[in-house]
Design goal:
The chain has about 180 residues and is α/β, with parallel strands linked by helices. It has five helices and six strands; from the N terminus they run βαββαβαβαβα. A six-stranded mixed sheet has the order 2-3-1-4-5-6, sandwiched between helices.
């Protein structure tokens, strides 16, 4: 908390499982390779990372939850850090929860979604890795996500092709107003 920015600029938080593609989405949104480090090993992000965008707001990359091969105590510390950030950060304008479009939302995905709803946080669901599914499979998977996360705005996204980029930026722009 002591290393978090104190300039009052709005923040857009990115949340999701360890292997859901948060870094790829951040890099794709900003059309920059390597800003957020990507890895084949889940759980590389072990702290909250702030990226100042156009001197006007921050993208905030929170540690992933789930598959990371770390100790239970470290995983618990990550959860506390993320919850502290999400519950106490007044600058938080929008939480973007990433879910893997190829799979049904996990129990952890559903818990985070319920937490965001219960705490009345503005949020958006982004279904990642959509380029790995056929059109029919994607339609079916989005319906599954909609069933598990009703009344949520869901955007399909491909970091490979950029499909969904404009929709995510529109949601970010609306949250920043």
């Amino acid at each position: 908390m002591q290393h978090w920015p104190i300039d009052g600029r709005p923040e857009i938080a990115f949340l999701g499982r360890s292997n859901v593609g948060k870094s790829s989405l951040l890099n794709s949104l900003l059309q920059r390779k390597g800003l957020a480090r990507t890895s084949n090993t889940p759980g590389r992000t072990q702290s909250i990372n702030f990226f100042l965008i156009n001197e006007s707001f921050y993208f905030v990359d929170l540690p992933g939850y789930g598959f990371a091969k770390v100790s239970k105590s470290m995983r618990s510390d990550w959860g506390k850090m993320a919850e502290e950030y999400l519950s106490q950060r007044e600058q938080l304008a929008l939480s973007i929860q990433l879910v893997d479009s190829r799979h049904k939302p996990s129990q952890l995905d559903l818990q985070l979604h319920e937490w965001l709803e219960f705490n009345q946080k503005d949020y958006l669901i982004v279904a990642t890795k959509t380029d790995k599914l056929s059109s029919n499979e994607l339609t079916k998977q989005i319906r599954l996500i909609e069933t598990d996360m009703p009344e949520s705005k869901i955007i399909s996204y491909s970091a490979q092709s950029g499909k969904g980029r404009d929709s995510v930026w529109s949601a970010i722009a609306a949250a920043l107003k």
